[in-house]
Amino acid sequence: MPKKVKIKNEKLFVRFTRFPSERTEEGRKQFFEMQSYGVFPVKPDPYYLCLNDGKEVFDLQCSELQQMYQTGEWWGWYQLWVDWKGERWVIPHLCKWHKKIPNWIVKENIEEV
Prior knowledge:
about 110 residues, mainly alpha, about 0% strand
């Protein structure tokens, strides 16, 4: 039996995709091979397309936030915390470029902060 591939940030890419699809091992394998070895699938699996799109959208969001921070257009940590209610686990990933992400940013309840 073939070994299952590990897709780093799979949940994150699924969260950001515009093309949701059922999870398949074929799509995961295709995505892994494209990311690891630059091998594009001849017949892309819908789940591969889902992951690929999600990664592109996620990368764009990260770049936009970083650019906003660098140009002084940054909304601030609190605004991100408000905007990502219910999905605050995403914020540290979006801001992976920042050296000092506040530890309270992933807390869902104000009582936890």
